Amino acid sequence: MSSLGSDEWKAICDKFTNAQHLTDVESRKDPDNDPFRSKYKARELLREIYCSLKNFEAGDGEEDTGGESGEQRPTEEPVDGQRADLFGQGISGDSPVGLRAAKLGAVEYYLGVNHVDTEELSAGQEHLMNCIKLLERYRVSSENVSLFIHVRNQLGILWAGRDETETAQGFLETAEAIYQRYMKEDGSPPTDMTEYFTTEDKTHQERTKRFELAYTHTMYYLAQVYKNLGQTERAATYCHSTLQRQLQLNQYSPMEWALNAATLSQYYITKGRYMEGRHCLSAATVISGLAGEAPSEAAAQESETESERREHLSQKRAEIARCWIKYCLNLLQDAKKLLEDNIGELDTDRQEELKRARRLEEEEEEKGRKSALLFGSEDTFDLIASLEEKVSSLFPLDFTEARAVFLVGQNYVTQAKEYFQMDGYVTDHIEILQDHSSLFRALAFFEEDLERRCKMHKRRVDMLEPICNDLNSQYYLMIRRQLMFELAETYSEMMDQKLTLANRQADSQSLDNHSIKKFNHLCSASAKYFQMFLDSLRSPEGKLPEHLEEEVVRPALVARFRVARLYNKLICSLPSAQLENLNKALENYKYVVQYCESHPEAAATVETELELSKEMIGLLPLKINRLKARMAANN
Description:
Helix content is 72%, strand content 0%. It has helices at 7-24, 37-59, 96-117, 121-135, 145-161, 165-185, 204-228, 232-249, 254-270, 274-289, 297-302, 304-339, 348-356, 358-371, 381-388, 399-419, 426-446, 450-470, 473-505, 513-535, 550-569, 575-598, 607-634. Helix 12 (304-339) packs antiparallel against helix 16.
């Protein structure tokens, strides 16, 4: 690449090797009070190399292709990709002058990265742009294509860090286009930038790996850019490809890779793409296993390093478990939406129709698997496929299928709770319990036996009620409100199911005392938690706000409506008690109507409840008056 026998060239190569060593190795040992010591030393060596190259060039009679490294050059920065064709126009990148420009550009590149690493962003940007300017006269070739891509990657990172996302996008998309065209038109393993300053060339395999890794970084940064631009589908595609390339190149940290794959699964889940979501999670679980077992508690107590490793591995695996919980929960909930009728019960005709279509759906899934970009290497592919077989990616259509999904989710609930315990992780622990409760609720939809369905809801009450009552409202008010509302709804669902069950066994006029007592208990418990939720909105002086905050308008009005409905349903033998309940029901129905009249914007959030409340305001006074007349006649 140069006159290799030259002592001057050997000195340049030695300086470059030392600069790399200072940057990659020695800098990790720098003290906290002088964190950039080694990088500053590396910078001086790079500057010396630049000066030597310029002198060498001047001695050969070549024209100046760029400014001195340390100079301030107030030039206007060109838009990246300004030259229409980086491949077909300009001087050959493989020519002697092209190679000299590439070497100077490489030093500018390393100086730019050095300044960015030492938090001198403007200087870093200048050096990186100098690199682009040095190369802009030359065509892309196997000698410089790696530098063309690397410098744009770095500028993409720099501008993204400044929240100049569209500028970053321009640099990174140009890097992507350069890679794709080079691979299409040439495809040979290109020279790596480090080879500019060494007497030994890298093997084709080494060159290929380093070049592919540079492009993998381009894809990774583009995934972040598209995410920040709100192009979520494009971001997911690039993220998926990045993860696959990292596996192929064997360039990844197992736990970081696994967490990224698990996070990607959540995007697929929200889009209803459960096959891809399951694949990501299965891969995440398998790859996380490559990080090894978490140290035992005893080992962690004896060593700080082992303690940190235990904490890290346990936390990340618990986070992956939580992603699995969301997968199972969303699969059940989406299946429920597909199968429920207009009153929220199982539509058996729809169920049979979907079962008949199942075979076609399975064939489509198999086609999808064949066309999808699958993760894995020879060592991990079978393990990932084996894990995928343990849970379906198709919507469950009956209780047996739903229960299989539920049990997988429940298993991951247990795993997640092992790390996210109540002592130390209150919010996380409660969120996991809420997901567990939601799993039971989704499964109950598929259960035809009302007694068993009630028992599932009772499990929900048993796991949430103690937490709700023990939490301190001063610190966990929002969480307590969520729990109160869910408990109120759960008791209400149990009440409806008990009433349906009782009505199947006998007509409503002949309910036995035990059934009435049970029904009233559930009814009162539901009303109690709805009222607790409403009371949590009161000021310290105990007054309800005249104007409800936007985030609580709907839940507060729904709670009022449901309390009214519950008081209207209570079964009382004493007319005086019944009258009191009817008056309370009327009072709450009136609140819903009056609040919406004085706050018209609230009406849109509770259209159904408002309409029914207006009807009940018209009907309940008649019922109250009839009851009063009967009581007067009896007296």
